[in-house]
Every structure is written in structure tokens, then in C-alpha cells.
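Lab notebook, bench 4. Continuing the backlog of folding jobs that were queued last week. Each job is logged with the same field layout so the records can be merged later without manual cleanup. Today's entry covers Helix-turn-helix domain-containing protein, a 236-residue chain. Filled in by technician R.K.

JOB TYPE: sequence-to-structure
TARGET: Helix-turn-helix domain-containing protein
LENGTH: 236
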Amino acid sequence: MPPRAAPMTPQERHDQLVDVTLRLLREHGRAVTTKQIAEAAGIAEGTIFRVVASKDELVDAALVRAFDHGAIFDRIAEIDPALDLRDRMVRLVSILQQRFRATFGLIRKVGMLGPPAHLHDSAEADAVRARLERACVELVGADAEHLSVEPGEMVHRLRLLTFAGSHEQVADGRLLSPEEIVDTVLTGLLAPAARPTCADPADPADPVGSVDPVGPAERATTPARPARPVREEASC
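JOB STATUS: finished
OUTPUT FIELD FOLLOWS
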């Protein structure tokens, strides 16, 4: 006989059962039983039905909990902004990848093709995605000036590669590590010696390269070229 449950408010008991059900769904899928849920929660099976009307109601609540983004924002906020850009992005991708892999595993276990439509295709879901993008962009910070694209675009590509590199089927079983994902986005896959370089740092598009078209006499009276923004230099 299970031990007597500690007194809880109805909301506390509901939250406990949802958490337990979510954990068991990841292991057993929809085949999980109310007996298993009760044993894991340390309560009598009948207690469940004083909180919810059916197992399906509990499963639905657990799926809603699984797709809640609340915790991910807290984890992103914990990343130290004093770290260099690569280290910040590696930590960000680690957080995103853990969530993706947990979500993919749950979806597969419960026999779903994707997140429930009402949780993914809604104004509320759009707002959450926009908030997540802002949080990621803010993490780029002042290093945005060193990118060849806008930080929002860099974050978009980073998330796309993280999604694909974290999915067993999409990645053909060859998952990418956070370091591999970040290095692909920030530095690409060309070896350093093979990367294109600018012949003239002052003008990446200058076809003359290192040839000086201005003679010594003219150089003293020729206005210097205006400095280019860092973002243009980074794109050479």
C-alpha cells in the first residue's frame, strides 16, 4: 500500500501529477497507466481522479507543460555576458539543443508528428518565439558589430542549424555538438589558409589589391579614404 500522501492544496497536487505524468510520458508514451502515475507520485490511484476527470486530461496538461518556454528564458538569462561571443553562443546552443532533443523524444514517444497545433500555431506561440529571438539577439550584444549580417539573421541561422543538428532523423544519426554548430555559423568550414582575404583592408572590393595607384607626390595631397564600418570589412 503506498504511503499516505502529504497534505497538498488541489493546485499543488495537480502540478505534482502533471510533472510526474510528463516524466513518465518520456519513458512509456501514452501507454503510461494511472497506477504508474500514482506510484511515482506516492499516492493512491483514486486520488488522481479527485484532481482530474481522466488520464487523458492529465496527459494533455503534461504536454502543455512540456511545450512551455518559461524555464528556457531563465537559463538564457543566466549566461554570463562577460564571456566572449563564441562561449556565449555555445552555452546558448547547449540550452536550445537540450530542449529540442527533449521535445523530439517526447513527440516520438507519444506518437505525435509535431507539437499540438493549438500550442504551436497561435498568436501566443508567435509572441513566445519573438521573445526567444529577442533574448538570443540581446546575448550577442556589442559583438553585433563584428558580424557580416544583422544579429537577428545570425540567431536565425544558429537556431536552424541547432534544430537540424539535434534531430536524429534529420541529422542521419550524426548529431552536432554545440561547438560544431557555433563554429559552423561563426567561422564556416573552410580551413583558415583557404579563407578569402582582402587584398586591401581599406577596400574589400578594390580589384587593384596591393598596387598603389597614387604616386608619392600625389599621396600627400590625396584625401584619405573614409573608414568603412566593421560590418563591411567582416564580409570580405
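OBSERVATION: The chain has two domains: 10-66, 70-193.
SIGNED: R.K.
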